Amino acid sequence: MARNYASVAFTPEVKALQERYGSRQAYAHMEQKATGTRLSDSESNFIQERDSFYIASIGENGFPYIQHRGGMKGFLHTIDPQTLAYADLRGNRQFITVGNAATNPKVSLILMDYARRARLKVYAEVEIVAINDRQDLADLVIPEGYENIAERIVLLHIVAFDWNCPKYITPRYAMEEINQMVAPMQERIKELESEVLRLKKQNELFTANSPH
Ligand SMILES: Cc1cc2nc3c(=O)[nH]c(=O)nc-3n(C[C@H](O)[C@H](O)[C@H](O)COP(=O)(O)O)c2cc1C
């Protein structure tokens, strides 16, 4: 099922526009490169580090729908080089994404690493799996303590994926990353504060003992 990303993204109308605006030749090369059908360690590691992603699905009325999914780092699991999975936990019970996927399994994901300015795009087909049907998968993807509210497992069969250029991604940091970055500065501030205190005391002593 897996295909080269460009061969999915470049529909006839997209190609016609590339032709019209002069970029077709360059992109024809990209289309021929047989890349991006199996996740390498680079993509798997990237996915494992994510604590959120965006997923677009298509409604019965043809409207695309996009939703942000968030969870513990690594909640989107790489099952094998062509399959991702996550536990669909009970939420607001609107069921828009799963409802859309029931009539059209085609979805698109975008995974962002704002801090390192990287983004991965994925085309996939959804398979909804009942928790009781796949205990092995359930054990893997349902976070500990969430067994009671896991409603289903969403399997994503990868059709194609591609990295996007980092340009225009504004670096943003999670609290955890900010804490890590400021830790050495906080340590240095503490050292300097005690140094200032020591010097102040030394100065007071010196002033008190000096002849008037
Ligand atoms: C109690 C509760 C828990 C939720 N937990 C999550 C969560 O873990 N991750 C998340 O992305 N959204 C969570 N949400 C928000 C939405 O329910 C969630 O995004 C939902 O999957 C929306 O899907 P839909 O827009 O496709 O219907 C939660 C909402 C509620 C009310």
Average pLDDT metric:
93
The best one-word shape is elongated
Strand content: 25-35%
Q: Which residue ranges are poorly predicted, with pLDDT under 50 across at least 5 consecutive positions? A: none
Helix % is 25-40%
Integer-rounded radius of gyration: 26 Å
DSSP helix count?
A: 7
For the terminal residues, how far apart are their CA atoms? Answer: 91 Å
The CATH superfamily of the largest domain is identified as Electron Transport, Fmn-binding Protein, Chain A
Name the structural class.
Answer: alpha+beta
Order of helices and strands: HHHHEEEEHEEHEH
Kindly provide the name of the CATH class of the largest domain.
Mainly Beta
What's the total count of β strands?
7
Bound molecules: flavin mononucleotide
CATH topology of the largest domain: Pnp Oxidase, Chain A
**Architecture (CATH level 2) name of the largest domain:** Roll
Spatial strand sequence of the major β-sheet: 2-1-5-6-7-4-3
Major sheet details: 7 strands, antiparallel
Report on the architecture of this protein.
The protein has 212 residues and is an alpha+beta fold. The chain has seven helices and seven strands, in the order H-H-H-H-E-E-E-E-H-E-E-H-E-H. The chain has three domains: 1-34, no CATH class; 36-164, Roll (Pnp Oxidase, Chain A), CATH 2.30.110.10; 173-212. Helices cover 38% and strands 28% of the residues. It has a seven-stranded antiparallel sheet. The longest helix has 35 residues, at 175-209. It starts with a helix and ends with a helix. It binds flavin mononucleotide.
